[in-house]
User: What shape does this take?
Amino acid sequence: MEHVVGFSGGAASAVCAKIVHDTYGSATLLFHDTKTEPADNDRFRAEVAKFIGLPITGDSDGRDIWQVFRDEGFLGNGRNTMCSRILKQERSLAYLETHQPATLYLGFTIEEYRRAQRTYARYHRYGIGVAFPLVEQKIGKAECLHRVSECWGIQLPRRYEFLDHANCIPCIKGKKAYWGLMYLYERQAWDRAVQAEKEFGKTIFTEAGSLVEELDNCLRLAKTYLEKRQAAQAQESLFEYPCECAI
Assistant: This one.
């Protein structure tokens, strides 16, 4: 039996990987590169893999999200996330189908148990076993951050300074507050998204209004989000729809 961990580059997947390795004495750290990964995520993944004592198994489509949109002829948004489907979900399924018997372990925290239920159903249709160690052990996001930074002594991905996920930059599922943060902290990603809207003649938002047209609203909402985060560790999601990335 191969124990395959969805190794995304966030604190939760890191803790999940450690639990699986400690439980079974082996694990495959499977990483699907979307080519829009922040460089600091690469540093984090490498340090976690070294700490656990396992190599990273890379499985990449070779394209970034923008090339996928171009090839599909459609600009992705919160309701059409073909980048997640093609670059992550379909690749993880293909890997698992050719490495049976195997179980996929995903680092969804206890706060994400509904997301875990949906993901379980998706893989169950293909006869693939999937497990959620953090949900089973009732481990939340805060505990994952604590274990990695305080117990393991590994610096968290820089994105956690202003985001609640260490995912692609940018993520097309982001709401306006998220895009305001992209403008403030990740201007290159913002500019690339603006370029894509012009290229496709469509907006990334599911409602009317382009990034440029909505910039003032994005910045206002980002400021409010940062104030809440600083004052009360805000748990408000930055994403319009729940993230369905497999890993």
About this structure: The radius of gyration is 18 Å. The chain has ten helices and five strands.
